[in-house]
């Protein structure tokens, strides 16, 4: 719009000067008309340089421009139609009331100039300039309001975009924090079920070897060899943590059943006759168990057998894996001294292991299952972990656990 008005101003100025020179050749006022036209053109060119804000310099420039135009209109009424671009310039720079006053003043000059050019009174010459001024003002005001609405809409959109980006950043930060906490909990359970249990067993064996070193070297040697075997398993687990955090028994192939049989054989061998661990599998799975289910059940079996070895004083323990179609159940039973399962567990003192059952329960709950413990003093303990399985034709909706993603 500004470029259009600039072009219209110079076009009207040139046409008015040409009309004057054609109608009034050789008059004494001609040099003044030409000079004032040049001054008016130069002044108009200075407008964009001064900017669009109503600064004192800008207002002074507008006043001088209007005065020069008025002088031209008094000397040559042909220059009256240059008022239309001046309407636009005044409306852009001045406040609304001052701009309307300027438009009214320019319109009066236009009407007076048209009446001077006419040979007689013509109502159209009185009504047309105000109509043109009203239309020009209405168009400008409408465009200005549209521009304001567009700016407001753009500002609101920027605010909404900023809010959306801020919300996304907050959500991403929250998800990272939750993921970090979940990963820490998972790693703590992994370390408890493998390295911590192995180190505890090694400590017990080495302490027993130290006590019998002088009196029974053969027994001490067996304890040391057993501790060496446990250290080898712990080393394999530690390397598996670094590689992909999957249980070493599962990584060797054969699935959960083979891993449980290997676990039972290993625990029996390490106990040196003090504990016999049997493994039994019932039923056939309709489909391969998800990796996260296999990993969780194997870790639960490892943790439960570690508790049996350390606390139960049992002679026989049994691992039973039962496939029931819509769920899989792992039972770990022993004939140890048992405990009161109905009594709330007390917080272990500093440095004492007591993370086993909470870790097992957390693993099962992450899979949507349940963990039950049945025990009584002198009657042994049965720990049962039941995990539901998705239908073979139903795609899982939950995201893979961090253990699988590793």
Automatic annotation (TrEMBL):
EC main group: transferase
Coiled-coil parts of chain: none
Name of the protein described by the UniProt record: Oxygen sensor histidine kinase NreB
PANTHER family: NITRATE/NITRITE SENSOR PROTEIN NARX-RELATED (PTHR24421), SENSORY TRANSDUCTION HISTIDINE KINASE (PTHR24421:SF62)
Reported function: Member of the two-component regulatory system NreB/NreC involved in the control of dissimilatory nitrate/nitrite reduction in response to oxygen. NreB functions as a direct oxygen sensor histidine kinase which is autophosphorylated, in the absence of oxygen, probably at the conserved histidine residue, and transfers its phosphate group probably to a conserved aspartate residue of NreC. NreB/NreC activates the expression of the nitrate (narGHJI) and nitrite (nir) reductase operons, as well as the putative nitrate transporter gene narT.
Entry annotated with the keyword Transmembrane helix: yes
Histidine kinase domain span: 297-391
Substrates-to-products reaction catalysed: ATP + protein L-histidine = ADP + protein N-phospho-L-histidine
Cofactor: [4Fe-4S] cluster
Compositionally biased residues, Pro residues: 389-406
PROSITE patterns xref list: HIS_KIN
Chief place where the protein resides: cytoplasm
EC number: 2.7.13.3
Transmembrane segments annotated in the record for this chain: 33-50, 62-88, 94-113, 125-143
UniProt KW Protein biosynthesis keyword: no
Origin: domain of life: Bacteria
Single GO MF annotation: kinase activity
Localization per record: Cytoplasm
Chain positions covered by the region annotation Disordered: 381-406
UniProtKB keywords: 4Fe-4S, Cytoplasm, Iron, Iron-sulfur, Kinase, Membrane, Metal-binding, Transferase, Transmembrane, Transmembrane helix, Two-component regulatory system
